[in-house]
Design a protein that fits this description.
Mean pLDDT: 94
Helix content: 40-55%
Radius of gyration: 23 Å
Distance between the termini: 48 Å
Length: 455
């Protein structure tokens, strides 16, 4: 049964009064952040990130400094020193799926030999099933309307099914991380099926993971009633998993892993914190917003090839007149990339193949035209700044063409990023050594305690 709240509801008036008190007593004058040189969002004044750590796992590069001036350059993404373009070209040329190879590289710092890759495939295969009773007790008996929350709960519940959950020795953490990499697709798929059944009143399908399949194929067969998919569908989802697997130590969810891991807590607590971060629409939900924005644009346009009409709509977005009135063109711009996002370039090229297979080339061309117009509009309206198309612009379209429902877009991101989170947790354990503890300055002043009868 769908869970319900049995307790008496707190009155809205009470909550409104509480909210007013919080706002009145906790709002900080924005000028104080400048006065005390606070790095809000751990960002420097020029928008670059504050250097808080070192990593060998991944490198995200989008600009250089020339004579103390920030200069935009082509985006670069490396996994343990290997260019993402070379990694993708390598396994595609040899006609292999790439996610397991990528996870191995991130975890162990080197590419596997073919025999090592096969052994790693077999190891993941052996760990995909959830523990006995887990599906019934931890997923089906407590369904969630949001799959990300269900995934986080499943991760935390895994602690209770682990005979040695608090051991943070390297070998034990590796075991836990490999198990989670293998089980994330199963947890997400079953969480989705529970949501469909208990919240959307659809039939319940629980397909067991199949041996001998890659992660992408396994996930597709677990979420589809008929368990079928084409080779190109699995190839595109696998590519998306590779491109999202790692993005440096500074992205919000990975930094959360570093922060929480630095306290020497257990693996499940650290990964659950990353899931909580990734769920936020400022981090993991951007591809859903792209699809929603594009659907809204279609409903407002009569001619999808009319550049002037597209630019007018996009200008309205920037002026906060269209869609969600946030002033954003979703899928455009990135915290690091300036000229280009290499992930978007790779995914766009492969997505064209899928569009042909699905008979959606016209829609794909519409996306490309919107991308072109968005660059013009943002350059004109944002003081000539160069804006990169980020991977979210095309990943949402790819998932839509794969007939994957929007509530699974961010869980797929998590399935992929689990490999990067694991690598960073291990790196923090091996090379960190100090609990992460930045400073906050109190600006509240000193106030006297007032006895209750005088308040």
């Amino acid at each position: 049964m769908r869970p319900f709240i049995a307790n008496a509801k707190i009155e809205d008036k009470i909550l409104s009064d509480y909210a007013h008190k919080v706002t009145h007593n906790n709002t900080i004058d924005s000028s104080l952040f400048t006065k005390y040189n606070v790095k809000r969002g751990l960002r420097n004044a020029d928008g670059t990130g504050v250097l808080v750590g070192l990593t060998t796992v991944g490198e995200v590069h989008g600009y250089v400094f020339d004579e103390n001036e920030k200069r935009a350059v082509e985006g670069r993404l490396r996994y343990h020193g290997i260019e993402i373009e070379d990694l993708v070209e390598g396994f595609q040329k040899e006609k292999r799926f790439g996610f397991h190879e990528t996870a191995y590289l991130l975890l162990f710092g080197e590419l596997p030999t073919l025999s090592e890759l096969q052994a790693f495939d077999d190891l993941l295969d052996s760990q995909r099933d959830l523990p006995e009773g887990f599906t019934e007790n931890m997923i089906l008996k407590a369904p969630s309307p949001d799959v990300m929350n269900k995934l986080a709960r499943a991760v935390l519940a895994s602690y209770s099914y682990d005979e040695n959950p608090d051991d943070i020795s390297l070998t034990n953490m590796l075991r836990q991380c490999i198990e989670l990499i293998a089980r994330f697709p199963t947890m997400a798929a079953y969480g989705y099926q529970a949501k469909r059944h208990y919240y959307d009143n659809n039939s319940l399908y629980i397909h067991r993971p199949a041996t001998g399949k890659n992660t992408a194929g396994n996930f597709l067969q677990m979420i589809r009633p008929d368990m079928s998919y084409t080779p190109l569908e699995a190839e595109l989802l696998d590519l998306a998993l590779v491109l999202h697997a790692e993005h440096g130590g500074g992205n919000n969810s990975t930094f959360a892993v570093h922060v929480v891991s630095s306290s020497d807590t257990d693996t499940y607590s650290a990964i659950a914190s990353a899931l909580g971060s990734l769920k936020g629409p400022k981090h993991g939900g951007a591809n859903v917003k792209v699809v929603q924005m594009m659907n809204d644009m279609k409903s407002n346009l009569s001619d999808y090839s009319n550049e002037k009409a597209i630019e007018d709509y996009l200008a309205g977005l920037v002026r906060k007149e269209q869609f969600d009135k946030k002033g954003l063109i979703y899928g455009m711009g990135h915290a690091v990339y300036t000229v280009s996002d290499p992930r978007a370039i790779i995914l766009r090229e492969k997505a064209m193949e899928l569009a042909k297979e699905k008979g959606r080339t016209e829609e794909f061309e519409f996306y490309k035209l919107v991308e072109k117009c968005a660059h013009h509009i943002l350059c004109d309206m944002k003081s000539g700044k160069q804006i990169a198309t980020n991977v979210d612009f095309y990943s949402g379209l790819v998932y839509d063409m794969l007939n994957i429902p929007p509530e699974l877009y961010t869980p797929i991101f998590a399935i992929s990023r689990m490999a990067g989170w694991a690598a960073h947790r291990i790196e923090e354990n091996v090379s960190g050594g100090r609990i992460i503890r930045p400073a906050y300055k109190s600006v509240s002043g000193v106030l006297p305690y007032i006895p209750g009868h005088e308040r």
